[in-house]
Design a protein that fits this description.
- The chain has 151 residues and is mainly alpha-helical.
- Helix 1 runs antiparallel to helix 2, helix 1 runs parallel beside helix 4 and helix 2 packs parallel to helix 3.
- Helix content is 70%, strand content 0%.
- The chain has a single domain, classed as Ferritin, CATH 1.20.1260.
């Protein structure tokens, strides 16, 4: 495994752990039961992602069979304001915050693909972009269903 790939995976692990800690801390900053439940679920997902990345680092890429996936982007969060903090957040603000956080991760890994040179590292970045887009899509669909769905 190249030094570049190890550094990329270490950075991704750090980002997942930081996100997990943020969502765990956010649960105590709101009284909204829906927001608490969502942050708990998001924290658990971030933990799983960090464990997957740690395993990837320990065992190597192997034959993962990764391929580019076309993940739709509803771009809901790009048109929303709020969600700047989880302090006192209700479910709607929590969803907006989480969508924007996922988009920041997409942007980060996309920029990384432009500067890294190792082929395996680029593949891992592509996979991370795809995974973050899937998370964002899931949040956007939930947001749309809850706040713009049919009455």
């Amino acid at each position: 495994m190249s030094d570049e790939l190890i550094e990329l995976i270490d950075t991704a692990i750090y980002k997942e752990i930081a996100s997990q800690a943020f969502y765990v801390a956010g649960q105590s900053r709101t009284e909204d039961p829906g927001a608490k439940a969502l942050m708990k679920e998001l924290a658990e997902e971030e933990l799983k992602h960090s464990q997957l990345l740690k395993s990837l680092k320990e065992k190597g890429l192997g034959k993962l069979g990764w391929h580019r996936e076309k993940v739709p982007n509803l771009m809901i969060s790009e048109y929303l304001t709020s969600g700047e903090t989880l302090e006192g957040a209700h479910l709607q603000d929590t969803l907006i915050f989480a969508m924007k956080r996922e988009q920041q991760s997409v942007d980060f890994y996309s920029r990384m693909m432009d500067v890294i040179t190792d082929g395996d590292s680029k593949r891992v970045c592509q996979k991370l972009v795809s995974e973050e887009l899937k998370h964002k899509l899931r949040l956007e669909v939930l947001y749309d269903d809850l706040f713009y769905g049919e009455d």
